[in-house]
Amino acid sequence: MKPAPFAYHAPHTLEEAVGLLADFGYEAKVLAGGQSLIPTMNFRLAQPAVLIDLNPIAELAYIRAEADGGLRIGAMTRQAQVERSEQVARSAPLLHEAMPLIAHPQIRNRGTIGGSLAHADPASELPAVLLTLGGRVQAQSRRGARTIAAEDLFLGIFTTSLEPDEILTEVYIPPVPPRSGFAVTEVARRHGDYALVGVAAWVVLAEDGACRQARLSFFGVGDGPVFANRACALLQGQRPDPALIAEAAQVAASTDVDPQSDIHASAAYRRHLVAVLGRRALTTAFARAAGG
Amino acid sequence: MTTTIPIRVTVNGRVYERTVEPRLLLSDFLRHELELTGTHVGCEHGVCGACTVLFDGVAVRSCLMFAVQAHGHEVMTVEGLSPDPNHLHPLQQAFHEAHGLQCGFCTPGFLMTLVPFLQENPDPTEEQIRLAISGNLCRCTGYENIVTAVRLAAAKMAGRPVAAPTHHASS
């Protein structure tokens, strides 16, 4: 239960950090909040030769509202800061509501928004939230900066499209139109445990009350966050009554997800939870979108 | 490759200078280097909460940080709570009075989690208390008396009148 030896670097600027990462490449791991990486190192499941600690880089911790209503959040912003931010509560209510579901208060005090996304645990909340919101991240390397959309970021279990020399530096949440409604919910064995299944929903109503857009992502049911394409297509343009919502959730459970059995839950139980949680989340999101 | 790194850390108001391996966990630094063994080590993967300390005033798992990361920062451990050996912190006193501990292994983690929580929430609801301690495991006393102790401490610290705590038999 003690980490293997490693060389430690604590750069104070992003430029230094990407330089170090370019030099060490695959040998190095980037240390953000460490709430997933350090336990993995304690178990010696990860034994990086070099750690590049981003914690001293003050320029990576911020929450900024954009003129268009979007939100930019520095990768090293602590989850607890995101949770408590009034700006986030106003501009990105789905993100705000998801934060308390992440582990425990002590973990969120240290864990970062960028670290959780780059870690890409398939059972974690933030990847699904980013996918539902159509957000994107900024990646920086010595070669330059690029933007990665959420749908292109998550490739599989603990796997993102970040290159070995790239550091995730910023999260962007786009503005939401009026008559938007959100909901995030999950089932875990104990509060703060990883979810068996969870869902993040965003719906937009047209003026006549029909569903203009529905976006639904599940977590804990695949190699990464799973966008429920068929369920969302079913809702589009339709009046969201309880029968349609139940049907969409059932479609998500039977066709959009392909959960696996593990020690925590069977595939059948996870599929059942997708239908139940999908229905609950959509019901809440549509009610909120309607102002109810 | 295991070069050591000099660090300077303030713990409970006292400055310590040591030279450590980067892989040394903050929890082990506190216990083995500084001999502050009040911080307990349970699971070493961030689940049990026994090693919770304040890092720059914020409750964190000391098993999920490296000692080198504490360089230039302030740590507070359970040893820093009481003003002197003859007096308990009001929260410690409340744990004592409400039977909020039995074997005591988890207690330092609970205390260090709850001190900043009570500063932020001087009059917490039971639900807020339970969420606050959701990251701390207790395997003998159970949580009922701990919740009672927190309410007692909150009332005492705010100078509110308190009903005599009802003791629950541990099961």
Tell me roughly what share of residues is in helical segments of chain B. 25-40%
CATH arch. level architecture of the largest domain in chain A: 2-Layer Sandwich
Q: What is the CATH topology assignment of the largest domain in chain B?
A: Ubiquitin-like (UB roll)
Please list the strands of the largest sheet of chain B in the order they lie side by side: 2-1-5-3-4
- Number of domain modules of chain B: 2
Assign a percent range to the helix content of chain A: 25-40%
Give average pLDDT of chain B, whole number: 93
Number of helices of chain A: 12
Record field, number of beta strands of chain A? 14
Runs of chain B in which pLDDT lies below 50 for 5 or more consecutive residues are none
Any overview of this molecule?
The complex is a heterodimer of chains A (292) and B (171). Chain A is α+β, with helices and mostly antiparallel strands and 292 residues long. Chain A has helices at 14-24, 37-42, 79-84, 86-91, 93-98, 105-110, 113-119, 125-132, 150-153, 229-235, 242-256, 267-289; strands spanning 7-9, 28-31, 50-53, 63-65, 71-74, 136-141, 144-149, 154-156, 159-160, 167-173, 180-187, 197-205, 211-219, 226-227. The radius of gyration of chain A is 19 Å and the shape is globular. The mean pLDDT of chain A is 97. Chain B folds into two domains: 5-80, Ubiquitin-like (UB roll), CATH 3.10.20.30; 90-158, Orthogonal Bundle (DNA polymerase, domain 1), CATH 1.10.150.120. The longest helix of chain B has 15 residues, at 144-158. The radius of gyration of chain B is 17 Å and the shape is elongated. In chain B, 30% of the residues lie in helices and 15% in strands. A five-stranded mixed beta sheet of chain B has the order 2-1-5-3-4, with helices on both faces. The chains are: A alpha+beta (292), B alpha+beta (171). At the A-B interface, α2 and α6 of A face β4 of B.
